[in-house]
Design a protein that fits this description.
Blueprint lengths: L6 E7 L6 H9 L6 E7 L6 H9 L5 E5 L5 H11 L4 E4 L5 E2 L3 H12 L3 E9 L4 E3 L1 H5 L6 E3 L16 E4 H4 L14 H10 L3 E12 L4 H11 L1 H22 L3 H23 L7 H14 L2 H6 L2 H8 L10 H17 L2 H9 L1 H13 L3 H16 L1 H17 L9 E4 L8 H8 L3 H4 L2 E4 L6 H13 L2 E4 L16 E4 L23 H8 L4 E3 L6 H8 L6 E2 L12 H14 L2 H4 L1 E5 L12 E3 L4 H8 L3 E5 L7 E3 L9 E3 L7 H6 L2 E4 L4 H6 L5 E4 L3 H7 L6 H4 L4 E2 L2 H9 L5 H11 L7 H9 L5
Parallel strand pairs: 1-2, 1-4, 2-3, 6-10, 11-12, 11-13, 13-14, 14-15, 15-16, 17-19, 17-22, 18-20, 19-21, 22-23, 23-24
Antiparallel strand pairs: 4-9, 5-10, 6-7, 6-9, 8-10
């Protein structure tokens, strides 16, 4: 073995002339230099060769090998035969290595004596980048030492890339060239099983490119060749079974792997078979059934993915089943209901209509309920009944309602955020007299029904005052009578991240037409300081005279000592540890576009914080409501962690905390009213700024120090380092109208003046 080569990077390439240069540059820009790159061209007929030759002409570490087309498995195998490095890294020809990936992974392999090193990965396209959903939900990217037996969640990172393999680990393992779909799974599965020590670094090491139309083309491929795809799945499942037997893998590992394949590959294949050849559906379900029936009963009994996929995700395709397909599907359902545990069936029972439909098939052979479900799904997809009802509400009910006189003194509180009053609307309502409350109609979030939706438009048509605190789609594009007031109290204080018209050019912004429809009817907008009138005027595109520095009603709480005492005591009773230790509140905002905001990778080092601060502090976690899945390097059950993300109201949590750590959250404006330290952990400042944009320069605006890593932040918390003078300047600029009397001013201006 050549000692000068530490890492062999193997890249199979095929028709990537347009993007291979980016991939090569991401490798050439690495600080780590002791590597070789084996570019195995699998028979490209475009200009891939010319681009590669130009990029690597002056770099002897890169080697280009051309071969006849045999598929990516054969190309990777050729690379393995030629590799001279101590470690192996696979890179796909359209992906990118993170800037410091080789250094970080190699150092971890050496210092931890690991057979296999992994790290965090992200997907990216032309507009944005995001963490892979399953890596967050299953906490695959939790850093530290692992084994496959103790961490079977690693099956959710079953691709060959973004992993540094010790060469001895893969010396006698090869990719299966006869499998045409999922051919890399057996290779990676065997390395996970064989590795004595796996280590996950706490850094992003790899970026998977999602090319335009990639998901669509995969769906088309499955629908065109469902049996071939299923045969490939069954092939690699058969190999997996043999590997489990050879290595004596635990039931837990097998269960995790089989659940994953059912949830991802098999679920996708089922969707594909119903968009393609009808003649293949019976054979498809018969083959699937045979595989399910052959699984060890003890494993099948616990496979919660099977009822979920074969009932909740499949029953809606009932209309696409002929007699013989129905018979095969019925047999599968009967087996599931007979051999699955109560816990596995729980997910089906919770979806009542799906459960009833499946039960009818199992017990009576009747597809009537399943067909009804399928018809409803078809109608919703084709005709969008919600849009139809909204159109009737706007164009008929509201227009005819406007022909009637406005109800004098009537007030509407409208929200789609909750089925109960909260925020500004609750603060205002609670301070109204009983007589004033009688004039109020509450339009809260409810399960959608055409009757309720049309009632909303009828109510809006005759209201004299309409109060909202966020986007409220029932008033979009509506033209109210001149005497009607539409008041936007806005749920956030201050002006931090750009929103509304101000954010039109941000990567995740709405269109200008959307913002016009959303905000065109406002007559008044509340703001927390007269210094911010121009920002709110721009955000909602209203005249500055319409922006009123009345304040933010819900912040009056921070000046009401009696309420503060009650709220704190309630929280102390629920969480006694808060009376025993100081509390640091960590309240970051979400990341990414609408489809990825539910996942959050916590870069703040909770483990280091525990070691340094755990004796004196507890760390309260309060993630944005949109965040559902969090990955961090400490278990949520750890006694240093108190996850209060399910608490709907953040105000009591702020009140019991001694310091705040955040990034770009508007919670800083309310927290400033407490005169307590704030620390800003903003390791992705540039990317976030590009995504959303700020009204003011971040470094100048925030009332605290900014940190990109955890060590300095921890030290400053220990030393109680904080600039209170900067905090006072911040308050003067952004929240000078917040004095505990915002609600009183609102009621005087908009309620009592209307009596």
């Amino acid at each position: 073995m050549n000692d000068s080569i530490k890492i062999s990077i193997i890249i199979p390439v095929y028709h990537v002339a347009d993007i291979i240069e980016d991939t090569l540059k991401s490798i050439q820009n690495q600080k780590f230099e002791n590597y070789e790159v084996l570019l195995i061209d699998d028979g490209s007929k475009d200009e891939t060769a010319e681009v590669i030759e130009r990029c690597i002409a002056q770099d002897g570490r890169f080697h280009y090998i051309y071969k006849e087309n045999q598929g990516p498995a054969a190309a990777r195998n050729d690379g393995l035969k030629l590799a001279k490095g101590d470690f192996i890294l696979f890179v796909d020809s359209d992906d990118l290595l993170a800037p410091n990936a080789l250094t970080v992974m190699y150092q971890a392999a050496q210092s931890e004596n690991a057979d296999l090193v992994t790290g965090s990965t992200k997907r990216f396209n032309q507009k944005q980048e995001w963490f892979i959903d399953a890596h967050i939900t299953e906490n695959v990217i939790k850093p530290g030492a692992k084994t496959f037996e103790e961490n079977p969640e690693l099956v959710y990172s079953i691709g060959p890339c973004a992993k540094l393999y010790k060469k001895e680990l893969v010396e006698d393992i090869r990719f299966l060239e006869e499998i045409k779909y999922g051919e890399d799974q057996p290779f990676v599965l065997e390395t996970l099983i064989r590795a004595q020590k796996i280590y996950t670094v706490d850094e992003v090491v790899y970026f998977y490119r999602l090319r335009d139309g990639e998901n669509k083309s995969l769906t088309q491929s499955i629908s065109q060749n469902p049996i071939r795809i299923l045969d490939s799945i069954l092939q690699f499942l058969d190999v997996a079974k043999k590997l489990f037997n050879v290595y004596g893998s635990s039931q837990n590992v097998q269960l995790s792997y089989y659940n994953r394949v059912v949830k991802i590959e098999i679920s996708d294949a089922i969707g594909g078979v119903f968009t393609g050849n009808k003649a293949k559906r019976q054979e498809f379900f018969q083959k699937l059934g045979n595989w399910l029936y052959a699984l060890p009963e003890a494993i099948f009994y616990q496979m919660n993915a099977v009822p979920f996929v074969f009932v909740n995700r499949t029953i809606g395709f009932a209309l696409g089943m002929d007699k013989h397909t129905k018979e095969a599907y019925q047999a599968i359902l009967q087996y599931i209901f007979k051999h699955s545990s109560e816990e596995s069936l729980k997910v089906v029972r919770e979806a009542n209509e799906y459960y009833r439909a499946a039960l009818s098939i199992v017990e009576q052979g009747s597809f009537r309920n399943a067909n009804r479900l399928a018809i409803r799904q078809f109608i919703r997809q084709k005709f969008d009944t919600n849009k139809l009802v909204m159109r009737i509400g706007r164009q008929l009910v509201f227009r005819f309602g406007k022909l009637l006189p406005v109800k004098k003194g009537s007030i509407v509180f409208g929200t789609e955020r909750s089925d109960v009053l909260s925020g500004n609307l609750k603060a205002i309502y609670d301070c109204m007299s009983e007589q004033e409350k009688k004039r109020v109609v509450l339009l809260l979030k409810k399960s959608p029904s055409w009757k309720h939706t049309l009632h909303i438009f009828a109510t809006l048509a005759r209201a004299e005052t309409i109060v909202i605190d966020d986007y409220y789609n029932k008033i979009y594009s509506l033209s109210f009578k001149k005497e009607v007031k539409v008041i936007q109290t806005w749920h956030a204080a201050g002006a931090f991240k750009k929103f509304g018209f101000s954010a039109l050019f941000a990567s995740d912004s709405e269109t200008e037409e959307f913002e016009k429809r959303a905000h065109s009817s406002y007559t008044d907008v509340l703001v927390s300081s007269e210094n911010l009138i121009s920002e709110y005027s721009e955000a909602f595109r209203v005249a500055p005279s319409k922006v009123k520095p009345i304040g933010v009603p819900r912040t009056d709480l921070f000046f009401n000592q009696e309420k503060i005492k009650t709220l704190k005591e309630n929280l102390y009773q629920k969480y006694p540890v808060l009376k025993k230790k100081k509390a640091i509140l960590y309240a970051p905002t979400f990341r990414g576009g609408a489809g990825h905001r539910m996942n959050f990778k916590m870069q703040l080092d909770a483990l280091k914080m525990k070691k340094a601060l755990g004796d004196e502090y507890v760390l309260i976690l309060k993630f944005h409501p949109v965040v559902k899945n969090v990955a961090m390097n400490l278990a949520e059950q750890d006694d240093f962690i108190l996850d209060l993300s399910d608490e709907k109201d953040i105000n009591p949590i702020m009140l019991v905390s001694d310091a705040l750590i955040t990034d770009y959250s508007s919670v800083i404006f309310e927290y400033s009213l407490l005169n307590r330290p704030m620390y800003f952990f903003a390791d992705d400042l540039k990317n976030y700024h590009d995504e959303r944009g700020f009204y003011f320069p971040y470094e100048e605006m925030v009332p605290g120090a900014i940190y990109e890593e955890s060590d300095t932040l921890i030290r400053d918390i220990q030393n109680e380092q904080f600039d209170y003078e900067k905090l006072n300047r911040f308050k003067e600029k952004f929240v000078d109208a917040l004095d505990g009397k915002s609600t009183e001013r609102f009621i005087t201006e908009y309620v009592r003046n209307k009596e």
